[in-house]
Every structure is written in structure tokens, then in C-alpha cells.
Amino acid sequence: MKVTVLFLASVGSAFLSTATAQLHLNSVFSDHMVLQRELPLPIWGTAKSGDKISVTLGTQTLTTTADTQGRWEVTLHGLEANKSPQSLQVESSTGESQTIRDILIGEVWLASGQSNMDWKVSASHSADKALPQSGSYPNIRLLKIPRKTSYHPLESTRCQWHIAEPEHSARFSVVAWHFAHQISQKLDIPVGIIQASWGGSRIEPWINTEGFQKNPSLRELHQFRKDRTPGTPEYKKAGEAYLDQLTNYTELYKKHLSSPELELPTPPLAPKTLELGNQTFGLYPAMIHPIVPFSVRGFLWYQGESNIHDGNLYYEKKRSLIQGWRSAFQRPNAPFYFVQIAPFRYNTSPTHLPEFWVTQQKCLRIPHTEMVVTNDLGDPKNIHPKNKSEVSRRLAMLALSKTYALGPMVRSPLYQNFQIQDNAILVHFQKDQALQSRDNKALTHFEIAAEDGTFYPAEAEILDNHSVKLTSPSITKPQQARFAWKQTA
């Protein structure tokens, strides 16, 4: 019998060793970047351990010393928005220096998710790609984080800021691009947009360790991850136990060869390793952590198609993701605006998608979040709705009203309560704005049921601008109501 032992080497730090290190800024800092206005600005990088580092931006100059790992960081004071190009200069006591040019000061957002956020301008329909392809937009700057996975947090990744010119816009997220354009136009200041997305990705690979640790509801999932991640104490302990078991088994096997009557136990199994991938693990360490704690205003999120079977558990995962990201970026109240996934004929139970919509709406309980509804934009035959610029417009309206206090709050109607009145159910909505149908036609997709739970299509009438009256000739004593309770609604 041949016994094979597999040893997995842990992934090392992305820092250069201090023996060979030279002065480096983190790669998130490059020519043509945008720095977040009016917030503290962490600037960091690597150098030889003990080197004195001086960082200058405008009238500010701060100094620090590279630590024993060669890492250094300073935090500049927030600046006012500025369209005039600035320079960031970093100098070392060894005489090395690095200068970043054409820096603008404005608003910075991080856009993430799966394929609908990842969808490129070049792959969009003509109406959505006309503007990005029409010329250069010097006040919009784009940073796309490369797709990568890692078991352990990487300290840097290869990325480069670009001016929003047709060549670079073509490869960028169409949702993120149009959001940046509308914010820049309305505020008349520079906007930097960071894209870190991966088609088909589940939410779990984007959640950091801190997000898991803060949520007892995900304890089992967190333990599962720790037990199978090379480098964790749990994985190391399991590996040591396996080697001990293997040693014992090998001794027994030797005895078995000379005394075949001795019965052999089942061979020990090596610790299971969590596979890296956009469905499992490794996106946060490789795609988000390398730019932490870069100063951002907030986050945009368009994801969920790969998690529609999660039901209520998705709420806990989203809560962990938001808490973890806010903590990592040192922005505890940062706005987090997300998109409710659109209608589509999934090959699954007909109720999975409506139940998931309910869970996505439940995520609004998390402070400083808002949701864009897209059930009027979807195509049940296409999981990637074409009208991406309208999704961007709705995200931008939320940001402009809630983050920047420009205009009234703009959101889709939110349920408040209901009452039964004779043969009708009155559904009351929050009074942010008067109710109306998008196309000024009769309301559809409402249903009501009696106690037996058999639902019938309901005639829906808007009352007093904030309520909807539901009736059906098939029901005289309605007890239940629902809306859009099917995949194609």
C-alpha cells in the first residue's frame, strides 16, 4: 500500500521582505486618481524597516517610520473638492521618492457584486454605451480591481486609475460608470469609482473575517471556513492531528504486513481544504483588502442571483458583509446602496425568487442602507436586464437625496401596515411620496386570499395617495394579500 501525504503551503504576505524592500506606495495610489473630499485620507505603502517616510499633498506634510514589517501609513486631513490636478509626493530617508500626479479631490464610491455589476459598457445596448463612448470625461476616474482569489489578505494588487475615456470606459462596469457620471454632473465635482466585481459570485467570498465574527447567526459557516482555510489555527491543528493519525496508521500497516491477521483500521483522511473561487472563498482577501483603508464615501452593491436559495439567511450574510466592510474602511456609517435583483425564470421553486425579494427588502433594517427596485426593468428570459443606465439613475437618486441632501427622498413604495374593510384589504405605504403606477395604467400583480390561502388576482385602486384598496369578485372575506409573488412579475 502506498501512502501519500499532501502538504499545503500557506500563502505569504504580499509585502517584499525588508531586506530587499524599496519605497512603494500601495497600488491603489496612481496617476489620475481621485481622493475622497472632506474625510481623513490614509496614505500607506512599504519601505525598508526603520526608514523615515515623508508624505506631502498640497500644504500638508506628514512623517512616519516604516515598521518591522516594512509597512508605513499616515493620515492626511480631509480636503475640499478640487478639479485642479494635485501631486502626492512620498520620500524616504534613503533618498528614494515617488510622485503621483493628476490627482483630483471629489467623491469616491466602491461598486461590487456579480455579473450585473460586472457588466461592461462595451457589452451594453447602444443607449447605455453611447455616452461612455462619446468622448473623454476628465472629472470621472475609473479604477478596476483585477479578478483574483487568495486564502489570506493581500496587501497590494495590480491596478491603475484611468480617466474615463472611451478605451477605458469600454471595459468598465456600465452601472458604476453611469452612477459616477450622474453624481459628477449633479455635484459638479470629480468622482472616482472603484469596481471590484466578479460574475456569478456568491456573497460569502466577499465577506471578511470580522464580518463573520460579529454575527452569531453565521457561527457555523464561519467555523466551516476556519476549519478548511490553510493557515488558520484550526486548519493547522487538524493537519497535525492527521499526521499523528497517519503515523499510527503507518505503524499498524507495517505490523499488518508481517502479521496479516491483524485487522487494519480505516486510513485517516487529510483535512478538507476550502477551494478558492467566486462561489466559495477568497474574493475579499484578494480584491477588497488590498485597497483597505482607502477613503471612500460609500458602497454600491448589485448581487444576489447566485444566492436566491438562501432565503432569510441572506439577510445575515448581507449584514455581515456590510458591517465588515464598514469596519475595514473605517466608515461605520457609510451608505450602502444595493439593487434588488430583477424578475427571471430561474430553474427552481417558483417561490424562491419572491422570498428572496422579501429578504432583500428586509436588509433595509440595516442602518444607512437603501434599495433600488428593478422589477419593472427585468426580462424574465434574460438574467441580465438591458436597461443598466436606469439602475444607475435610481442608485444616483438615492445617493443625491440621502447622502448629499439634494432634493426629496426618492425610493420605491415601502409597506407600512394593512386593514381589512368589508370585502377589501387596504394596504398602507410609508408616506415618502404619493403613489402612482410607473406607466399611469392600472396596478397589476396584486393578489388576495381568504383563510384557505387560495390567492386570486385582485383589482387594485390607489386611495388617498398612500394606500391601495384590493378586492376580488371571488373573495368576500379577504384575510391575506401579496404583491409580485412570482418570478415573472
Description of the structure:
This protein is flat. It has 489 residues and is of the alpha/beta class. Helix 4 (174-187) crosses helix 11. It is built from eleven helices and 21 strands.
- Multimerization status: single chain
The helicity comes to 10-25%
Specify the structural class: alpha/beta
What percentage of amino acids are in beta strands?
25-35%
Number of helices: 11
Strand count, sense and barrel status of the largest sheet are:
11 strands, mixed
Q: Which stretches are poorly predicted, pLDDT < 50 over at least 5 residues?
A: 1-19
Radius of gyration: 27 Å
Specify the overall morphology. Answer: flat
Gap between N and C termini, in Å? Answer: 60 Å
Beta-strand segment tally: 21
Question: For the residues shown, what is the average pLDDT?
Answer: 93
